[in-house]
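Hey, I'm writing a tutorial for new members on how sequence and structure tokens pair up, and I'd like a real worked example in the thread rather than a made-up one. If someone can provide the structure for the chain below, I'll link this post from the tutorial.
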Amino acid sequence: MQQVHEWLWNAQVSKEVTSPQFAVLYALRAEQDIDQRTLGERVSLDRSTAAEVLKRLTARGLIRRIRDANDGRRNRLHLTPAGTRTVERLTPKAVRMNGILVSVLNDCEQAELLRMLNLVVDADERLPSALPSPLAGEGRGGG
């Protein structure tokens, strides 16, 4: 499934902006001035992947980081004008690509797929609090 999605993304949406990069741009278009941790939660990216995506988007001039006035350790994230233009240009292409991806399903099956994907997303949001810390009860050696 991931290979089909990646192939379709490159063919239908963009060869320059990856789907995780687009997810970040899209999320920032909906909610600017959030920090990296919050953004990662919004788009389901782990900390290191989010950091790498943000580094690449910053280098390309699509987002900018502004030091948080209340907490100098945090950066607030914003789309640049180029980032806004990019997400606006790619959004209709991404919608069309998603339509192609599910076009083999009838309307009922598409609704069921959406329902099940929402269950997965909801579970993903609950998992961190439901799971024990990976280091809980372990010594430095990892055991």
